[in-house]
Amino acid sequence: MSKVYDVLIIGAGPAGLSAGIYAGRARLSTLIIEKEKDGGQIVLTSEVENYPGCLEGESGPTLVDRMSDQAKHFGAEKVYDEIVEVKLEGKEKVLIGKKGEYKGKTVIIANGATSKPIGCPGEKTFTGKGVSYCATCDAAFFEDFEVFVVGGGDTAVEEALYLTKFARKVSIIHRRDELRAAKSIRAKAEANPKVHFIWDSVVKEIKGDGIVNSMVIENVKTKELTELVADEDDMTFGIFVFIGYEPKTKIFEGILDIEKGYLVTDENMKTNIEGVYAAGDIRVKSLRQVVTAAADGAIAAVQAEKYVETL
Ligand code: NAP
Q: Active-site residue 200, yes or no?
């Protein structure tokens, strides 16, 4: 018979790892199940400067490495598997993965969100061949090249600034004529001579021959289409897409309460099923940050501990 853990945690991002630290430290038998690699979206971030106590020059991956070590130190186990089905009703919860089945008295769902695609022709074909969703991962490929950043939020502008360390020119394509990004971030971009703006525009098609070499954009006000073609010497350019995230809640549909794609919890991270909690970007909340994800994870683990005591 397979082990029944006190706490099963789906996802090893800041929310899941923080839950692992708190659950492990409370001496609960804890298993973190991560689909591919620890960290969630924060590992896509080149610079973290607003997590309390983070080091100067801290990157997403370095911060997450220390969180992972801390969870391990407190005894949380980890397995790499993708959960494809869940059975959450009743006292024994079952998570079915591609590699195995996991049983727990409680479940903390912290599997976050994925990058939202533009959805235009060519985007899928050229992903990894010029189209990227991660500046930290791919910026170095564009040393001295031209790159375009799609989006106008904090992520797009922060990552555009990071890209200026590599690319010779960074153009932000935004669908409005005003950035959504916070004032402080916006000011840095406006002051950077490498950063340019293409306002009121959306990407309609990405083209290439093996790798990206052009892109069609549309001015949403005039409906004018423009084809941006790679410089003759470069033959290619980068397109970095940061237009928000989509929560990964598909497997919970019809089981847990969902609002606009996000899991609904109370302030104690409780979902509509007893012993099941959600933490981090996957849940309905007003601020999706590492610090709020970590806080959610801690609260969920403490609630799980209280619930386990009642069994
Ligand atoms: P976001 O705030 O949702 O911004 C998404 C951006 O993409 C917006 O500018 C939006 O345009 C644009 N967009 C959305 N769908 C689009 C589409 N289909 N085509 C073209 N453009 C599209 O996402 P985010 O920047 O990833 O940030 C997510 C959360 O993390 C936010 O709460 C943000 O504050 C936070 N964050 C904080 C920091 C920090 O504090 N340092 C860093 C990164 C992220 P509109 O503006 O027209 O809607």
A: no
